[in-house]
Amino acid sequence: MFDRTRDRAVRALAFVLLCATTLPAQTPQPLYMPRAVKRAFAKGTRSLDGKPGARYWENHGRYAITVTAAPPDRAIRGTERIVYTNNSPDTLKRLVMKLFINIHRPGAQRDEGASENYLTSGVHIDAFSVNGMAAPWRDDPRFFTVQPVALPTPLVPHDSVRLSIDWHYEISKEAGREGMLDSTTYYLAYFYPRVAVYDDYNGWDTMDFTDAQEFYSDFNDYDVTVRVPANYIVWGTGTLTNAQDLLQPDFLKRFQSSFTSDTTVRIATKSDLAAKSVTKQNGVNAWHFTATNVPDMTFALSDHYDWDGASVIVDDAAHRRSSVQAAYNDTAADFHFMVQFGRHALDWLSHNWPGVPYPYEKSTIVQGSADMEYPMMVNDGSNADTTFSRFVVEHEIAHTYFPFYMGINETRYGFMDEGWATTFEYLMGVADIGREREETFYKQFRVNSWARDPSPLEDLPIITPEDVLKGVAYGNNAYGKPSLGYLAMKDMLGDAEFKKCLHAFMDRWHGKHPIPWDFFDTFNDVSGKGLNWFWSNWYFSNNYIDLSLRSVTKTGAGYSATIDNVGGMAAPFDLRVTYADGATEIVHQTPAVWRANQRSTTVSIPAKKVVKSVEIANGIWVDADVTNNKWPRQ
């Protein structure tokens, strides 16, 4: 998600600070590890070399869903059949179901207020059965988005259970991550009951959905049919299998041609839809989508949104193309460019950073209001500034890798996906608009609010579980701070080694559920370097960035500068040296300069000329106090 909450008021937070001490780099140190995570390593499901352990497992679901929508009627009705397989070594006496739409119920736990238009009566379960036998659904008023369900017969290891659920809900009038975009345009996300994740280190995921932090899902197989009236188009996750049964011949031809076109194809326009010439004129059209090994499905539907499409080569070796589609109000000027913005994002991400071919067949960008990512889908607001629109869509598409290709627990460890999307957004921006302009944007939007705010909430360790964080404490720990840490590691290792480590992590854990220690251990393993001093400094401490240039002295070989690390963060920096003759020089220091002593370091300036002044230049690693960054003191 593209965080827009920079300037919101800080809310109260009750949480014990974690692991604030930074040990000297010379002392070999394990990283802090919660007791539950330690048990996973002890059981052999995870390995200290960063690889999945020999006993790693994850559970799996097969979902067959039919959902019906008929705007302007706000009722969404669905039926589903779930085959849930227990691959764990544990016998499960209950399941935990997630009912995200219950966030709209009065009394649900939220991080923001709720208007009258936001509130609904939530999800209503009309029928429920287990292994073909009707079972009671106890709608416990103590629960909202998380609902425990007792099983009549325990689910033993390597067995499966069949669930059948009929449900309905009233779509919210206020569009956020899901809801009514207008009276005849709906965005369906989190729309179906699902089995929560049961994992090797935490058991059942019972974290509430608060409409702020995001979600955590198993990799499942989906077969979804969306039933809508004639003249409605449906866009969604997965493969549309029956386009020939839905689209009139001319529009089917345009749709098919977009999958091989570099230029934008106007598949359908507002006027085409007004003429009722786009879809087959059945009373109800059933749009059928399938997807395998994905963490979620989401859909949009409208009877007047424009529909554009094109494609781009994402895998040079296989000559594989991915489709980029856009659905939007014709009045949204920026969305007329959105297919090409999306093509650029897929191309750049596939070939540069992370440099892994986009793994899916398509990405659809829908004009909504959430600036939010879903598998193969993006729900973005419209902006007058097309440059900003491109930034947002690049950030959201970057989430394809984290958390969808990699099954990140976004709710608890959001820095593992938002931090990476922010990093890729920055690197893409440098390529798109130049380093100086992108660094200005990145600092203003991602860094300054942390660097210049002395609130204790700003200095909580990044590893703090983010399901307990709010406001700036969540925003900076999920976005800017971890991104700076990733970029600092890239600066220290160099591009080639950093990419080698990143690719190893992605190869080992895609389609699985990595946790932070798997990432840290993989970089340690692949680089062959003891990097725990860095991880501890950046991700497990209360440090911040504040360097002080204590002194500059003349030596036989030139000069030496002593820099104190007041804030403790192992950030890279430049020394901008100005000579008496007016010439300038940059002496760059990577974070490795802090390995031996994270509080103070001395840097050699091999200058043969007289030095007039020296200044610390931090770039994107913004210094909290720049008054002590120059010599001689001003």
What does this structure look like?
Strands 5-4-7-2-1-13-17-15 form an 8-stranded mixed β-sheet. It has a 6-stranded mixed β-sheet with strand order 16-19-20-21-23-22, sandwiched between helices. A 4-stranded antiparallel β-sheet has the order 8-9-18-14, with no helix packed on it. Residues 5-27 have low confidence and may be disordered. It is built from 14 helices and 30 strands. The protein has 634 residues and is of the alpha+beta class. Among the domains are: 35-55 and 434-539, no CATH class; 57-212, Immunoglobulin-like; 547-631, Immunoglobulin-like (Sandwich). Helix 8 (418-433) runs antiparallel to helix 9 (435-451), helix 11 (480-493) packs across helix 12 and helix 12 crosses helix 13 (516-527).
